[in-house]
Amino acid sequence: MHNTVTIRPATRTDAGPLIAVLAEAFHEGPLADWLIPDPADRRTVYYRYFKDAFHHGLEHGQVHTTSDQYAVAIWYPRLEPSPTNAHQRLAALEAIAGPYAPKFALLEEMFEAFRPDEPHHYLAYLAVDPTRQSRGIGAALLADQHRRLDQLGLPAYLEASNMRNRRLYLRHGYTAGPTIVLPTDGPIIWRMWRGAPTSGGRTSFPRTRRRRRSL
Protein backbone atom coordinates (compact mmCIF):
# COMPACT_ATOMS: atom_id res chain seq x y z
CA MET A 1 0.00 0.00 0.00
CA HIS A 2 2.84 2.40 0.75
CA ASN A 3 3.31 3.20 -2.95
CA THR A 4 0.32 5.54 -2.54
CA VAL A 5 1.84 7.47 0.39
CA THR A 6 3.28 10.87 -0.50
CA ILE A 7 6.32 11.73 1.63
CA ARG A 8 7.90 15.17 1.94
CA PRO A 9 10.26 17.07 4.24
CA ALA A 10 8.54 18.53 7.29
CA THR A 11 8.71 22.25 8.07
CA ARG A 12 7.92 24.43 11.06
CA THR A 13 4.38 24.91 9.76
CA ASP A 14 3.82 21.17 10.40
CA ALA A 15 4.68 21.51 14.09
CA GLY A 16 1.18 21.40 15.58
CA PRO A 17 -0.12 18.26 13.84
CA LEU A 18 3.16 16.35 13.97
CA ILE A 19 3.93 17.05 17.62
CA ALA A 20 0.44 15.75 18.40
CA VAL A 21 1.11 12.61 16.32
CA LEU A 22 4.37 11.96 18.19
CA ALA A 23 2.83 12.49 21.62
CA GLU A 24 -0.18 10.29 20.85
CA ALA A 25 1.72 7.49 19.12
CA PHE A 26 4.15 7.07 22.03
CA HIS A 27 1.58 7.60 24.79
CA GLU A 28 1.01 3.89 25.41
CA GLY A 29 3.54 1.14 26.03
CA PRO A 30 6.03 -0.20 28.57
CA LEU A 31 8.50 2.65 28.11
CA ALA A 32 5.79 5.30 28.56
CA ASP A 33 4.53 3.52 31.70
CA TRP A 34 8.06 3.50 33.11
CA LEU A 35 8.84 7.12 32.29
CA ILE A 36 5.58 8.61 33.58
CA PRO A 37 3.21 6.23 35.40
CA ASP A 38 0.40 8.83 35.58
CA PRO A 39 -1.35 8.98 32.16
CA ALA A 40 -2.60 12.54 32.69
CA ASP A 41 0.87 13.82 33.56
CA ARG A 42 2.25 11.82 30.67
CA ARG A 43 0.07 13.59 28.12
CA THR A 44 1.22 17.01 29.31
CA VAL A 45 4.90 16.13 29.56
CA TYR A 46 4.96 14.19 26.30
CA TYR A 47 3.62 17.17 24.37
CA ARG A 48 6.47 19.34 25.71
CA TYR A 49 9.05 16.59 25.15
CA PHE A 50 8.04 15.93 21.56
CA LYS A 51 7.75 19.63 20.80
CA ASP A 52 11.41 19.86 21.76
CA ALA A 53 12.24 16.71 19.76
CA PHE A 54 10.47 17.94 16.63
CA HIS A 55 12.20 21.32 16.55
CA HIS A 56 15.56 19.75 17.40
CA GLY A 57 15.07 17.35 14.49
CA LEU A 58 14.33 20.21 12.10
CA GLU A 59 17.48 22.02 13.19
CA HIS A 60 19.93 19.15 13.46
CA GLY A 61 18.48 16.20 11.57
CA GLN A 62 16.03 15.19 8.86
CA VAL A 63 12.27 15.21 9.50
CA HIS A 64 9.90 13.57 7.02
CA THR A 65 6.12 13.51 7.01
CA THR A 66 3.24 12.54 4.75
CA SER A 67 1.01 14.83 2.72
CA ASP A 68 -1.83 14.32 5.21
CA GLN A 69 0.42 14.88 8.29
CA TYR A 70 -0.59 11.56 9.86
CA ALA A 71 2.99 10.32 10.32
CA VAL A 72 6.48 11.60 11.02
CA ALA A 73 10.02 10.25 11.10
CA ILE A 74 12.98 12.03 12.70
CA TRP A 75 16.43 10.92 11.55
CA TYR A 76 19.91 12.10 12.53
CA PRO A 77 23.07 11.56 10.47
CA ARG A 78 25.67 10.14 12.87
CA LEU A 79 28.70 10.22 10.61
CA GLU A 80 31.16 11.22 13.33
CA PRO A 81 31.08 11.56 17.13
CA SER A 82 28.78 14.38 18.19
CA PRO A 83 29.46 15.50 21.78
CA THR A 84 26.54 16.99 23.68
CA ASN A 85 26.40 19.49 26.52
CA ALA A 86 25.18 17.18 29.28
CA HIS A 87 24.45 19.92 31.81
CA GLN A 88 22.53 21.99 29.27
CA ARG A 89 20.47 18.95 28.26
CA LEU A 90 19.70 18.06 31.86
CA ALA A 91 18.47 21.61 32.49
CA ALA A 92 16.25 21.37 29.40
CA LEU A 93 14.80 18.06 30.57
CA GLU A 94 14.06 19.48 34.00
CA ALA A 95 12.10 22.29 32.36
CA ILE A 96 10.25 19.82 30.10
CA ALA A 97 9.57 16.92 32.45
CA GLY A 98 9.75 18.38 35.98
CA PRO A 99 9.85 15.56 38.55
CA TYR A 100 10.10 12.97 35.76
CA ALA A 101 13.30 14.49 34.36
CA PRO A 102 15.69 11.97 36.03
CA LYS A 103 14.20 9.04 34.12
CA PHE A 104 14.23 10.94 30.83
CA ALA A 105 17.86 11.89 31.46
CA LEU A 106 18.74 8.30 32.28
CA LEU A 107 16.99 7.02 29.16
CA GLU A 108 18.79 9.46 26.86
CA GLU A 109 22.09 8.74 28.58
CA MET A 110 21.66 4.98 28.15
CA PHE A 111 20.77 5.40 24.48
CA GLU A 112 23.83 7.56 23.91
CA ALA A 113 26.09 5.19 25.83
CA PHE A 114 25.19 2.22 23.62
CA ARG A 115 24.96 3.97 20.25
CA PRO A 116 27.32 2.47 17.63
CA ASP A 117 30.48 4.36 16.73
CA GLU A 118 30.28 3.25 13.10
CA PRO A 119 28.91 6.03 10.81
CA HIS A 120 25.16 5.59 10.34
CA HIS A 121 21.81 7.36 10.29
CA TYR A 122 19.87 7.18 13.54
CA LEU A 123 16.08 6.86 13.57
CA ALA A 124 15.13 8.70 16.74
CA TYR A 125 11.36 8.55 16.23
CA LEU A 126 8.90 6.98 13.82
CA ALA A 127 5.29 7.80 14.67
CA VAL A 128 1.98 7.16 12.94
CA ASP A 129 -1.34 8.50 14.18
CA PRO A 130 -2.93 5.58 16.11
CA THR A 131 -6.09 5.85 13.98
CA ARG A 132 -3.99 5.32 10.81
CA GLN A 133 -1.67 2.52 11.95
CA SER A 134 -1.36 -0.86 10.19
CA ARG A 135 -1.91 0.76 6.77
CA GLY A 136 1.69 0.74 5.55
CA ILE A 137 2.37 4.40 6.32
CA GLY A 138 5.26 3.73 8.68
CA ALA A 139 6.67 1.23 6.19
CA ALA A 140 6.55 3.90 3.49
CA LEU A 141 8.51 6.35 5.63
CA LEU A 142 11.10 3.67 6.34
CA ALA A 143 11.42 2.63 2.70
CA ASP A 144 11.84 6.24 1.60
CA GLN A 145 14.84 6.80 3.88
CA HIS A 146 16.25 3.32 3.28
CA ARG A 147 16.50 4.05 -0.44
CA ARG A 148 18.59 7.13 0.28
CA LEU A 149 20.81 5.29 2.73
CA ASP A 150 21.43 2.44 0.29
CA GLN A 151 22.46 4.96 -2.36
CA LEU A 152 24.89 6.48 0.14
CA GLY A 153 26.09 3.06 1.32
CA LEU A 154 25.16 3.82 4.93
CA PRO A 155 23.56 1.71 7.68
CA ALA A 156 20.65 2.67 9.95
CA TYR A 157 20.26 2.26 13.70
CA LEU A 158 17.36 2.62 16.16
CA GLU A 159 15.99 1.47 19.50
CA ALA A 160 12.69 -0.41 19.65
CA SER A 161 10.79 -0.14 22.93
CA ASN A 162 8.23 -2.92 22.45
CA MET A 163 7.83 -6.25 20.69
CA ARG A 164 5.43 -4.91 18.06
CA ASN A 165 7.95 -2.33 16.88
CA ARG A 166 10.75 -4.88 17.06
CA ARG A 167 8.83 -7.15 14.68
CA LEU A 168 8.14 -4.23 12.34
CA TYR A 169 11.82 -3.40 12.03
CA LEU A 170 12.83 -7.03 11.63
CA ARG A 171 10.47 -7.21 8.64
CA HIS A 172 12.20 -4.19 7.12
CA GLY A 173 15.71 -5.56 7.13
CA TYR A 174 16.93 -4.75 10.62
CA THR A 175 18.71 -7.22 12.86
CA ALA A 176 18.55 -7.16 16.65
CA GLY A 177 21.70 -6.57 18.66
CA PRO A 178 22.41 -6.67 22.39
CA THR A 179 19.57 -5.22 24.44
CA ILE A 180 19.48 -2.33 26.88
CA VAL A 181 17.80 -3.08 30.21
CA LEU A 182 16.67 0.04 32.00
CA PRO A 183 17.12 0.03 35.80
CA THR A 184 14.45 0.36 38.49
CA ASP A 185 12.16 -2.19 36.82
CA GLY A 186 12.45 -0.50 33.45
CA PRO A 187 11.58 -2.23 30.17
CA ILE A 188 13.91 -3.95 27.75
CA ILE A 189 15.02 -1.87 24.77
CA TRP A 190 15.98 -3.66 21.55
CA ARG A 191 18.88 -2.16 19.62
CA MET A 192 18.27 -2.58 15.88
CA TRP A 193 20.67 -2.29 12.95
CA ARG A 194 20.10 -2.27 9.19
CA GLY A 195 23.51 -2.81 7.70
CA ALA A 196 24.99 -1.02 4.72
CA PRO A 197 24.66 -2.92 1.42
CA THR A 198 27.66 -5.04 0.41
CA SER A 199 28.36 -7.52 -2.36
CA GLY A 200 27.56 -10.31 0.09
CA GLY A 201 24.47 -8.84 1.76
CA ARG A 202 24.66 -6.23 4.51
CA THR A 203 27.15 -5.28 7.18
CA SER A 204 26.57 -6.96 10.53
CA PHE A 205 25.66 -5.34 13.83
CA PRO A 206 28.76 -3.47 15.04
CA ARG A 207 30.49 -4.50 18.23
CA THR A 208 29.14 -2.66 21.26
CA ARG A 209 31.49 -0.39 23.16
CA ARG A 210 29.64 1.28 25.98
CA ARG A 211 30.60 4.90 26.51
CA ARG A 212 31.13 6.47 29.91
CA ARG A 213 28.01 7.86 31.55
CA SER A 214 28.00 11.63 31.50
CA LEU A 215 24.86 12.97 33.22
Question: What's the quick description here?
Answer:
This protein is of the alpha+beta class.
Written overview of the protein:
- This protein has 215 residues and is of the alpha+beta class.
- The protein has a single domain (2-202), classed as Gcn5-related N-acetyltransferase (GNAT) (Aminopeptidase), CATH 3.40.630.30.
- Helix content is 41%, strand content 21%.
- Strands 1, 2, 3, 4, 5, 6, 7 and 8 form an eight-stranded mixed β-sheet that branches. A two-stranded antiparallel sheet has the order 9-10.
- Helix 1 (15-25) crosses helix 3 and helix 4 runs antiparallel to helix 5 (101-113).
- The longest helix has 22 residues, at 39-60.
- It starts with 6 loop residues before the first strand and ends in a 13-residue tail after the last strand.
- The model has no long low-confidence stretch (mean pLDDT 92).
Essential attributes:
Aminopeptidase, eight-stranded mixed beta sheet, globular, 215 residues, alpha+beta, two-stranded antiparallel sheet
Q: Using only CA atoms, what is the Rg?
A: 17 Å
- Quote the beta fraction: 15-25%
Uncertain ranges: none
Number of helices: 7
CATH superfamily: Gcn5-related N-acetyltransferase (GNAT)
CATH architecture: 3-Layer(aba) Sandwich
- What's the count of strands? 10
SSE pattern: EHHHEEHHEHEHEEEEE
Main sheet properties:
8 strands, mixed
The structure class reads alpha+beta
CATH topology: Aminopeptidase
The share of residues in helices is: 40-55%
Number of domains: 1
Report, as a whole number of angstroms, the end-to-end distance.
43 Å
Summarize model confidence as the mean pLDDT.
92
Query: Judging from the principal axes of the Cα atoms, what is the shape?
Result: globular
GO molecular function: acyltransferase activity, transferring groups other than amino-acyl groups
Domain N-acetyltransferase: 5-197
Protein name: GNAT family N-acetyltransferase
Keywords: Transferase
